[in-house]
Structures are given as C-alpha cells and as structure tokens.
C-alpha cells in the first residue's frame, strides 16, 4: 500500500466529499441567485434541444446504473435471483446505451458551447471546467464499459469498487479494499479518482442544479401563497390568540 | 432586527410542509425574502435634483438616485410649473441619451486621476532637476527644439501616467509665468463653449484667464451655430421662442431642423400643435425623422434652400404686396422693418447699383448724429423725414430711441413713411442686381421707381429698400417699361419655376406653401412660424440662406408675435442670468477688460488652414464689383484686426506687458500707434508663422475641441499640435496674400501645452499633454439655462467628487492659488498690460465708422485713431500674486455698473445683499469684506443674485434704464408683478422656477406668457439694435456690397473639388463615387457626448458609420455594413456604410460627432487610424463676417465673427474589402 494508494483511495475521497457537502451548504447560503442551471436556451435553442435532452436522459440512467452497480451489494442481486450474466447483460446493454447517450449528448453540448459565438461570450471559466471534467469522467467511464467490460474484461467492480465505496461512505475504509482498488485496471482507477475531483469542484459550478430539480411542480397546487412572515410563526400567533 | 437564518436552514426547516387552503390554493411555509431583491432594486437613499451640462442645451431637470453612496440611475423630473390651461406642459423633459448619463460616472472612460504624458513628464522632471527652478525648467523645455519636438510628437499616442494636482498646477503655472514673461499673456488661450449649459464651470476657467490676461476663444461662431443673419437683421446674437410657443403657432414650417431627433424633449409641442389644426410643412433633403410629422414635404436639394426662400419671397411679394395691399403686412413692415428707408443708387460704369442708406446729413438736415440717421419719404409732409429710433438716436440719450413713427429732430411730429416710391417717383430707373449661380455670376436689370435728390451738389437717385426688394425678387407691378414676369418663367430670378431648376422642389408646391404661410399670418395676426436648424445653418453662405427665409416671417408680420417668427435652434445660447454670469466669468467685478477672441479667425491661422485655402475671393464677389479688396480671405482678417473690426490675439509681435514701461496711459496709446505706423511693431495676425506669435498654451474645459469641433481636424493635429496627421493637401506653392506673411516652411506643433479638464477621455484628452479629472454633472453646483424653456436649473452634487476629480471651479481655483504663490517670486510688482479690443456692438463704438466704408490707415489714406479706425487700447495693472484672492472674491466694481446690451444700472444693494447671502472671505490677506466666491455654490448664488432675469429688484432697475433710454414710460409694468422675487439656488433646487421679464432679452414672460423673441420690441416700440433701429433687409457696408449681399439673394454652396492639383491624391481605384458630405446631428449622441457610452453604442452599429443612398452604393458595389474609406484633401475617414433609400442620391451623411475613439480601423491611404467626422472638413472664412465698427455689424463675443462652417465639402468613397480592414492592434 503506497502513499499514493492511501491518497487516492482514502484521502482524496474524504477531501472531495467534505468539499462536496460543505461547498454546497456554503454556496446555497451565500449565492442564492447563482444557484442555477444557467440555462442558455435564451441564446440558442436548436442544438440545445437535442444535446440537452439526450444528455440528461442518458445521465439519469447512468446515475441509477451507478447506484445499482456500486451502492447495492452483489449479495442483494443474488438474493433476488439476478445472475451475473443477467446483470452483465443489463449493465452492458442498458448501461452502454445510456453511456452512449451521455457521450453523444455531451459531445453536442460541448460543440455548441465552443462554436456558438453568443454562447462562448456568455460562458464562464467554471462552465468550461465543469463541462470538460464531466466529459472526461464520462468518456473514461464509457470506455471502461464499452471497451473493457463489454469485451469480456474479468474485473468485477461489484466486488471491488462497490464495497470500497460503501466502506468509504460508512466511514470504515479498510486496507483490503484499498489494495483491491490499487489493483483495479487503470481505466477504473482513473474513472473513480477523476470522479472525486469532479465532486470537489461540483459545488462551485452550475452542476448544483442537480439538487434543484423542480419536482415540486408535479404535486403543487396551481396557486401558492406565501406569508409575509413564515407561517409556523403565524400559527404560533394564532394559537396564542386562541389561548 | 434579528439576523435571519441561513437560506439552507430555512429551506430544511420547512421541508415540504405546505398548508392546503382548498382545491387549488395552498400556503407555502416559505418566506418572501426572495422578493426583497426586486424591492431593493428601486430602493434608494436619496434623490438629488440636477441637470445635464450637455451641449444639446435641452436643460432638462433630472432626479438622480443615489444608493449606498453610488449613483444608481436617473429619472425625469415632473414638477415643472404649469404652462397654464389650454397648453401642453413642459414636464416631463429628458431623452434616452440623458437617461444614460450615470453610465459615465463609473465607466472606463472616466478620468479618475490627473494625467500627464510620460514623454513630457520625463523631460519636465529632468529639466526641473537640472534647473532647480520650475519656470526656468519650462523655459528650457520649450526653448530646446529637440525636447519640445519629443513630447509634441507623442501627442495622441498614449503614454499617460498618473500624477498629482500639485505637480500639474506647478507645471502649468510655470508655463503661464514663462509665457507672460517672454511673449505676453495674450498667448494663453482658453476654449470652453456654451456657458448656458453650465455657467459656473464656464466661469471658472474664464475668470482665471481673464484675471491673468489670457484670451478666451468664442465658440458659437466657431461651431457655426451662430446664425450671422441674426446680428445682421436684428442686431441680436440670437433670440428665439421657447419651445412651448410652437404650440401657439397655426402654421409651422420646419426647415433643416430635425426636431424629434435633436430637440427630443421639446418636439411634443410640434406634434401637439397638429392636434389643434396647425399645419406642419417640412423642408429637408432626406426623409428625416421630422418629415413624417409633416403635411407637406419640400425635398430640397442640399444647400439650395436660399433658392426656395427667394421664390417664396417672390410669391408673397407678388400676391400680398403687388397684386393687392395687405393692411396687416403693410403696417408691420413700415413700423418694424427698414423697408421704407431710402437707399441711394450709384452709377458705376454701365450699372446703376444700390448703395448706402440715405442719411440725414446728405440731404442737409441740420441735426445731431446726422450721418447715423437714416431717412424715409414721409407721405404726410410729402418730404423726407428722419424717423426716431435709428442708431443715431440710440447714442444721444434723449429718449428718442423708440419705434414711434415720429421725426423729433426735424419737429415733424407723426409721420407716415412711404413703403414704395411708386406713387411718388420722379422716374423709373433700371437697377442692376447680382445673380450668383453655381457656374457663373451674372447681372440682371430690373425697373425701380426713384426720386431725385441733390447730394453734395450732384443729382442722385434714391429709392426705398422695399422697391429694391421687389425689383430684386422680380415682382412685376405695372411700372413703366417693366417686363411681366410670371411664376412659370424659369429664367428670371427668383420665380418658383426658376428655383425648381436648382432645388428640385416643384414650383407649384412652393407657391402653395408660400401662399398658405402668408394667408395664415393674415388670418392669425402673425402666427406663422419657421423652425430652422443646423441643416441650413452650417453652410458657408448660411447667412444668405437665413436672410431669404427671414424675408418670409418679416414680410408677413410674424416676428415678435407669439406663435410666429423664426425659431432657430442650433447650439442654444441663452444664458438667462446673463449679467451675473458675465460679471463672474469675465471678472467684470474687477473692472479689467477681457481679451475675447473670435474662434474661427483664431483657428484659421493657428492651424495654418489659411495656407491651404482652395477658394478664390474673385469667385465669390458681386459681379457688380470690379475688384475684390483682397485676393486671399486671410487678408480680410488682417484688415479687420487693424481697423478694430474684429478682435485679434495675440495682439502684436511684442509682449503686451513690455510696452507701457513708465509712460502715462495717453503716452502708451500714442506710442502703440506710432510703433505700428512705423513698422517697429506689427499686428501678430500678419505673421502667423513667427514662433513669437504662436498661441502657447490652450486650456480646454467642458469641450471636446479636437475630437468634436475641430473643423479641419487633421490640420489641427499637424500644425497646432505637431503630431501624426492624415491630411493629403499641400499648401499653395507661392504667396498669394498681400497682408499675411507667407513663408515656405509651414510651422508644426505651435502649441506648447494643451490642457484638458474633462470627466471622460475624449478625443481632446487623448491629444492633450495634460488631462485633469473634472467632476461630472452629478458632482458639482452649477446653473443651466436654455432658450427651449424659461426655467433656470441647478446642478447639485449627488455624490462628492470621486477619486481625485475636482469641480471645474475648484480645479481652476487651485491653479489660481498655485499661480499666485509662484507669482510672488516672479512678479513681485504689478505689471502694466496693454490691451487692445475691437469696436464693440451695443456701445458708442458702433457709430465710429460712418457710412460703412473701409477707413484703412495702412496705406496712408487715413490716420489711425484708436477706438475709431484702430483697435481700442487700454492699459491695465495686473497684480499677479493677487489673482487667487480676486478669483475667490467678488470685486466691488459691480456696485456702480452692471448691465447688458447697451444699457446699465447699479447693483449696490444686491452687492451688499450678497455679503449676507454667501458670506465674505475670512482667510484672505489682501482682499477683505467682499462677497466670497470660494465655492461653486457661492458663484452660482452670485450669478442668480446679480441678474435681472432672476432678481426682481434688478429687473426693475433694468426696465427703468430702458425707459430712460427709449422714452417709453410703462416698461417696468412688465416685471412689477414679480419685482420682489429673487430666485435663489435653494428655490430652483426645490422646484424649477420661471425667469422674470428683463430687457436683457427681447421677449416677455409677464403673466405666465410663453416667451417669444422681439415681442417687447413690437409691443412696446423698443427699437432693434440695428442701424435703422428696425429689422434689416438691407445691409450697406462696403464689404457687403463687394460680395453682393446688400439684399437677401441666392448663393449656391461653395464650388469645391475633392483635391487640388499638387495635393497628395491617392491613386484612383475602379469603383469610387464622389458625394456631397453632410454632417447632421445624430440620434444616439449629442456631438460626442453619449456617443461613447455603451447603452448608446448598442443602439446603432457601435462605431463610425456613414449613410448613403442605395443607388449610389450599388453603383460602387457597396452593401450595407461594408467598410468604406471616405476621403478628400483634408483627411480620411474609415467607417461602415449604412445603405438607405432615406438618403437622396448625391449626398452622404456622416452623423455629427463621430470621434476617433471606438472601433476605428486603420486607413489604407494614410496608414494611420481613420479620422473623425471632421477629418474631411476644413473652414472657410467669409469676409462679410469680419465687418466691424458699424452699427449692428460691430463685434461682440459670440455675437459676430466668421463662422466655422463645414457643410460645403465633397468626398470620395470607396469600398474596403474585409481583409483590408486593419485594426492596427499589433
């Protein structure tokens, strides 16, 4: 276990997670008006409609794929009777397809950002950093799926990366898992470590919009009132009045 | 207030708990803090009333909103006093340009610190270290050609470095002291325009320069905004109705004035007048913005307006004077114009031509001032009479200067002047008139009824101005032997058919509009109005264009009537609190005469444009004149200087402080005359190439001289500044002047120091040696007024001056202080300064050269007499160490005399009042107990307190003075209702206040009346300040006759070539087009102001552009937005083409003022950056504008003088391919 291994598989993840959590809190509290997806639809619609749709549907499936592959222990699949072959079929075909969508969609968004003059003029450094970092992570990840797993690579991340990540998240990193990470194929190592770098810059980019998915619109009423004073206080006042 | 919890905490604490109210409504647990940002957007800490010192001079009152110590935005004020029932209101005023001003405050253009060009600073620091004495250091710099050249050639090439006010003031003071010691204070010049737009700021530099003996340059004539026809016709600089009076008109002719575009806040009055039935007729070459409001459009060929004016005059004379008599018109012109006055006719060779006004002296009337009293034929006594009110009466002070039809001198009592001699004639004579066509000048002959008189034993023919005007215009009226001229006669000047050939306007339309104009005047008693503007005013012969148009309002009795008359709005010039302003600005309170110079004459020589003059005098003189006085226009300037007609500074080739010595004043005057006669001393104007006669220092404040008004921009760069330039012209190969000394080697870099005070980096700043940070219009106390409305507006600081900027007042005050401190060493004793000044209008000077001849003493025919045919000479003592204390103290000379326009009164009570109002200086050591002018606020209060338009007690005194002068007894009635009012600075800050009626202006505001010029003249029989005391059709000065301008007539634009032989003409390319070059005012800027702000730049193409016709463009393959190069011998412009069918074929518009600062690529021709809109222009001076010492044609600062006209140019345009556009950025 080299120092580099410790850094990559223990220190970096914790630094990154810390920045990720505290960064979001900080950003949310200090930059309410900057907490946005920074839509550029106003400036360019056509390319955005294709690129963004494909990319976002892809990334949603990729996200759930990662949840399935990493956070859910292999045991659970076994219990449910999902065999390795079935899992791999799903991971390669559905994961690959979703990955392909992300790559294609992302590629179009990238082209749009560097080719459309008015978008270029309105892009900040953080937009480029977020897009490029995300692009690299996605490309490396897609290459792993398409170029390694799909072509019969025998590395099973469900018994290496998955447990390691769960240990990290439950604050119980172990030497064994770190060693397992260190022996993982270089593509997977790259994907994971770069992902943690991405998480570290995440709170400071437009990517924060992930947490502001306007799901509420699905359930809210047509007219929403807000009180000048927050309403629990109003309730307290009401109660006082009754008493 | 409790600190609110963080957004995240709040978000989490209410997570999802929403209270359902009914099926569709719910109450969210979240607060409404997010709304605060919208609420805060328009919250502010204070609102300050101020205005804009911009040279549209719209003088709009603004609310400036300040938030967190930052100027956040401005909005229009809406509290103007009402114009009364049945009238549209003034509020709100302000246009989108004005609303963008606050952008400047914190913009990249803002000058934040004092700057000096590093090339100069380096030389200065070295010289200072070497010489140890700042004055010696400056002397060393300017006297070492290598050093001087080094920093002068760096002008316009960047390299500014920050410095301190202290260091700059020391440097400037050193240069002033050195210049006074070596060449004299009259080599120090100041340029600042239009005091009305910010009087205190104007006064700051002016007061300082006047106290040290520097020369101020005029701007109104230099800008070609002055309509010389106004002094010629009325003896009045310019006086026009306020804009609300347009609404009183029932027929509006709008002529070359783009109201919605250039008079944005006022144009609504024109539109509203249409709703009550006023007809609006537009005269414009292009489909301008105002044309769309018009019922009729007369699309005149650019520059041919005078042909149209003359044809309309012809129609009015024919239909309302010849075919039938119109009582209203007849009555008006007899009382108020010079039409009934008699003119002598002189036989010159084969031609009988009109000459001088017949004077009482010539026909043997034994009365005083008889050579200045003009004569009419009195029908009542069937003889000659000299009516009261002429200039001869004006300076007798015996209460006969009024317009009553009386002849007091000859005890004739009431008289009835004959308008025409038709019924009194001895015979009908044939008089010759000059005709000026584009290609040739001819003479035509017309019949005129005449009387015979005996003058000096010889029989002489006389006729009236009216008869000459009728004949000149070709109006047939059944005289013996007269040929019948009809409207359809296209060869006879000035019929409607004749003008159609020139102007392209259908003859029928001309007759119809003229007829309607006159008929409306009859029906409404004179409510026909002509709004006119710079479209027709910037031509070389603008005065002739104007006089033909003024015919229309004079012949129809519209002038001096509310809703009627001329309404000229070009660079408005109305300083309402006039006397107070003149006192403070010209330092009249200290009683020293100021050196006030005519700007155009100055720049013509200072920039050496006289050497490149492509016009020949002989081409412009009357065909009835054998020989011009001179062959070169510059020589007329020399003549005007030595006869005391025009001012001329520098005065002599000798230092004015080294003439007097110990001699008494009388001896000094005599010695000056003797030295000039002997040739020991010469007028400086005669040798502009002598370094001793160069202007040395030039202060420019509140102005963009180089980037905006430098007609002949490239000559400025080359000769005045001595830096890189883009002229392609070569000077005349040999001398063609008689008086002006010609040398082969043309001087370059004449100016030692160009100092610019401004809040933004303009073209002037970029070429200056020193740029000083001035306060913006939101950072100082000042006053503004306009002729567009009758209010005086204050400037108030919304924030204190940011960074190191200073108000103009404080800037010049600090310079005065430094200068005075240094002067203790260099001028411990008072210095005697010899001041020359021209014969002034509105003083007895104007009756010194009788009969309007040329009493030239230079060649021995006359003796030079100062104040008669030689400039006035005064000797004054200058105590330079006291300049600072005088600057901040109001001198007591004002107690005994204050006034304007030829009348004066006392201001003693007001002076004492001021001591209490503004306080006295506590820390001065020499001058004590006088009202303090320490701050700009005190200066503003002083101006208001000392002016009759803003102080009722002075208005009463002023009207009283005019009562004494005219013998009219009821004039104080005009202001008695407001005699106890005094508009203080606080008053006008609280709410706009209307000014008081005062004889300083010619209209009345009494009873909330709308101001219209000359209404008091007409209603109260107050004479016009002219030769006859009436409105003038006829001008009889020798120079007028020489150029055939005795009567209004048509003169075409100058015949100009784009290049002269010998010029460095670029090789022709395949697709080139030559077009007439016009520079009307732009929609998204006022001159260069606002043109450089981001909000305005985004509104139109964001850089230099020119407009041309689609067919013209197509013929040389130019498409919209292509880059083009536009050039002539004067310089080159690179801009983008705007192709539009709105522009007629044959002309190109480059909107006024496109400076060289933003998005200007390089020129292929000059290899430097493309020019300003003034690069293809230059000035041509007109000799008739230099006449002086003769009634209304006497000099007044910004009143008379050659105009800096620039309309008559032609340019060549060629397309630039995309790849040829070089931004010169490496």
Quick take:
Chain A has 243 residues and is mainly α. Helices cover 69% and strands 2% of the residues of chain A. Among the domains of chain B are: 7-41, no CATH class; 340-485, no CATH class; 1072-1220, Barwin-like endoglucanases, CATH 2.40.40.
Give an overview of the whole structure.
Chain B: Residues 45-109 form the 4Fe-4S Mo/W bis-MGD-type domain. The complex is a heterodimer of chains A (243) and B (1226). In chain A, 21% of the residues are buried. With 243 residues, chain A is mainly α. Chain A has a single domain, classed as Transmembrane di-heme cytochromes, Chain C (Fumarate Reductase Cytochrome B subunit). Chain A is built from 10 helices and 1 strand, in the order αααααααααβα. The model of chain A has no long low-confidence stretch (mean pLDDT 89). By secondary structure, chain B is α/β, with parallel strands linked by helices. Among the domains of chain B are: 7-41, no CATH class; 340-485, no CATH class; 1072-1220, Barwin-like endoglucanases, CATH 2.40.40. Helices cover 28% and strands 16% of the residues of chain B. Chain B is built from 39 helices and 40 strands. In chain B, the strands form 11 sheets. Chain B has an 8-stranded mixed beta sheet with strand order 7-6-27-26-25-8-9-24. A 6-stranded mixed barrel of chain B has the order 35-39-36-38-37-40. In chain B, a hairpin with a 2-residue loop joins strand 13 and strand 14 (351-357). The radius of gyration of chain B is 31 Å and the shape is globular. Chain B starts with 6 loop residues before the first helix and ends in a 10-residue tail after the last strand. At the A-B interface, helix 1 and strand 1 of A face helix 1, strand 1 and strand 2 of B.
